[in-house]
Amino acid sequence: MGNVANCSSHNSAKIESTIRRNISYEWQKHHHILRKSWELICEEKVANGVIVFINMVKLSPETKVYFQAIDFDKRGSLLTNNTFLRNHATRFMEAIDVIIRQDMDVVSIGYYLRAVGSKHHSYNLKIEHVQSISGAFVQMVKTVLKKKFNKATEEAWKSFFRMVIDLIEEGISKA
């Protein structure tokens, strides 16, 4: 039983540290903006996820190396219907869905995204490449929302991805 107490206090210290760091994330203040725009994004969730990864490769061509099963030089449905790309986009968008729609608490988000980072470490994902996802996602949001896209929406998503990127990078660096 003594081990459990030691384990709990050790985990409590980690959780306390995570909570303190995550409190500073602005995305929580803009949760209503994220939810509202997310509902529109979810109308074509997988297709929009595919667009995120296409945008990412356009913004950071060196990230192609992580998607060797995909020929990003193809156009139209040959690219957007690629099974590997669609599956990856589905997992990515479902992860965001869980955080946004289900009001996942910051501690759980931290554990989850660090695990994602640890998993991506096994693919030799470089920390600097993780950061390219934010711009790619915001670009997709701008396309989806059209005239409904504004500075507040952009800032809300950028803040959200600051948190996501920080935690994934932490998972990569500790793997």
Describe the protein's topology.
Blueprint: H1 2-23, H2 31-41, H3 45-59, H4 77-80, H5 83-101, H6 106-121, H7 127-130, H8 132-145, H9 151-174
Summary?
With 175 residues, this protein is mainly alpha-helical.
Helix content: over 70%
General form: globular
- Structural class from helices and strands? mainly alpha
In what range is the share of β-strand residues? under 5%
Distance between the termini: 29 Å
Unreliable residue stretches: 1-20
Which radius of gyration do the C-alpha atoms yield?
17 Å
Q: Based on DSSP secondary structure assignment, what is the total number of beta strands?
A: 0
| Average pLDDT taken over every residue | 84
Which sheet architecture does the biggest sheet show? none
Number of helices: 9
Order of helices and strands: HHHHHHHHH
Give an account of the 3D structure.
The protein has 175 residues and is an all-alpha fold. The protein has helices spanning 2-23, 31-41, 45-59, 77-80, 83-101, 106-121, 127-130, 132-145, 151-174. Residues 1-20 have low confidence and may be disordered.
List keywords for this structure.
single chain, 175 residues, mainly alpha, globular, disordered N terminus
